[in-house]
Specification:
282 residues; alpha/beta; Alpha-Beta Plaits; DNA polymerase, domain 1; five-stranded mixed sheet; three-stranded mixed sheet; globular
């Protein structure tokens, strides 16, 4: 197969950075986007991360970790608008764009180099994002999606890291198993039970061993342990779920009240499904 040129762009603390950009009083302060009374942290500024505040942790725990934490209500309409600006920049370089969320995407620039290297394109994209949005982005450049994703985490925030083909296998070998994209805490714990603590340990396992213990994912683990990932960047990646949620100020203990609150959530999901002409099954 020809060597691909894949870029993974990941905005730095996206929601929190937008809030700090739009409100100068928040700059330099630990900021969390989310609900302070109940709920979870949707995003945390780098000043908050110093205290251990991370996305998806309960807001109450975040406040215990950082009493000076400033909570800001999310403004998803603003985040979506900024995301559209960023994707318009991506489209200047390649049509092969696979968004993963509002703040990150894979780009395949293999056939759109025009005399430049993928690294140079990543530099240009990061500079344009800063110019247009006043925000910073980190980028990973490699020959496949897995390594590009891992590379973008190496020099955050506002960093760029390149993993060339000749360095892919060695990079993976030194990587702690808990840092592998796609291997969550539960799977990492199971792997450690089998003595698999880093990429080198993973590479020593046979494909049969991995599939016997981790099912069809075992083949993927066997490949990425060797720096192999043949997945294409897919602009038409299928969305597999549609959901809606709400966080309440107090617990709903009455069944009829809970049913009443469930109805608008169900209507919202149904509206999304109708708009996308999506079907579902049990």
């Amino acid at each position: 197969m020809p060597i691909r040129r894949i870029i993974h762009i990941d905005m730095d603390a996206f929601y929190a950075s937008v809030e700090q950009r739009d409100n100068p009083e928040l700059r330099g302060k630990p900021v969390a986007v989310g609900g302070i009374e109940r709920g979870v942290v949707a995003a945390a500024s780098y000043e908050a991360r110093v205290f251990g505040v991370r996305s998806a942790i309960p807001s109450s725990r975040a406040l215990r970790l950082c009493p000076a934490l400033v909570f800001v209500r999310p403004r998803f309409d603003v985040y979506r608008s900024v995301s559209q600006q960023i994707r318009a920049i991506f489209a200047e370089y390649t049509p092969q764009i696979e968004p993963l969320s509002l703040d990150e995407a894979y780009l395949d620039v293999t056939d759109h180099l025009e005399g430049r290297t993928a690294t140079r394109i990543a530099q240009e994209i990061r500079a344009k994002i800063r110019e247009v949005t006043a925000l910073t982005a980190s980028a990973g450049v490699s020959y496949n999606k897995f390594l590009a994703k891992m590379a973008s985490d190496q020099r955050k925030p506002d960093g760029l890291f390149v993993i060339p083909p000749e360095a892919g296998a060695d990079f993976v070998a030194s990587l702690p198993i808990g840092k592998f994209h796609g291997i969550g805490p539960a799977t990492a714990a199971r792997m450690e039970e089998h003595g698999i603590r880093n990429g080198a340990d993973l590479r020593r396992q046979s494909q049969e061993f991995l599939t016997a213990r981790f099912g069809k994912s075992g083949t993927h683990y066997w490949n990425i342990a060797r720096g192999i990932d043949n997945r294409e960047v897919r602009p038409d990646r299928i969305r597999k779920s549609i959901g809606a949620e709400n966080t309440f100020m107090s617990d709903l203990r009455d069944l009829e009240l809970a049913r009443a609150e469930l109805r608008p959530l169900a209507d919202k999901v149904w509206a999304h499904a109708e708009k996308r002409k999506a079907a579902a099954k049990l």
